[in-house]
Amino acid sequence: EAQVTQNPRYLITVTGKKLTVTCSQNMNHEYMSWYRQDPGLGLRQIYYSMNVEVTDKGDVPEGYKVSRKEKRNFPLILESPSPNQTSLYFCASSLSAGGQTEAFFGQGTRLTVV
Amino acid sequence: SQQGEEDPQALSIQEGENATMNCSYKTSINNLQWYRQNSGRGLVHLILIRSNEREKHSGRLRVTLDTSKKSSSLLITASRAADTASYFCATDADTGGFKTIFGAGTRLFVKA
Fold first, then answer.
1. Which of A48, B8, B93, B111 has its CA 20 to 30 A from that of A12?
2. What is the three-state SS of A3-49?
3. Which residues of chain B neighbour A90 with C-beta distances below 8 Å?
4. Local structure of B109: helix, strand or coil
5. Is residue A76 helix, strand or coil?
6. Distance between CA B71 and CA B94 in Å, rounded?
7. pLDDT tens series, chain B, 112 aa
8. Other beta carbons within 10 Å of B11
9. A105, B42: Cβ pair inside 8 Å?
């Protein structure tokens, strides 16, 4: 089954404690993205990756890091989380660059930073 | 920056009625997509329309695109309670980059 898998689904952490949210897709997609969703703001793109070792900033990259060492995985790293990073996070993948083909989304990770 | 802005923010209709949602965007685009999200879950792709297309249909969905007005509309005909969800438009920004930009969404509630 074609899918994008994020882990964990829920996470509560403390300010400053590094964390990683994993994302994996099994569709051999080249383009992967991370978004955060906040009430009234829709989805905002954090980072995206065109292919292995190729990443670029989205609209809200501050406080986040990503890596793309393998085509299927695109982890999101918060080196020093802060309460304003409390949000619902989505990973997505698509065959080609943003907006050109349908994107498949993971089920989301609800992060709370206290 | 918000590229797509949906209108209305929320819409409540009776089952069987049609629902129309609008999306406006700021810069020129190559493609525009509509997605659906059920209550905090992952988004599901509904339809993609390219900048050289004016209208597209998929089942009970009809999407129009007016590039001169930088706007798109999503029409859901004969709505069902199961259509209750949030609907988002998403665009690529034709500025040489590869970002995908989503609007804030329209929350649709269909009463049985």
1. A48
2. CEEEECCEEEECCCCCEEEEEEECCCCCEEEEEEEECCCEEEEEEEE
3. 42-43
4. strand
5. strand
6. 15
7. 345 678 889 999 999 999 999 999 988 888 999 999 998 789 999 999 999 999 999 999 999 999 999 999 999 999 999 999 999 999 986 666 688 888 889 999 999 9
8. 18
9. yes
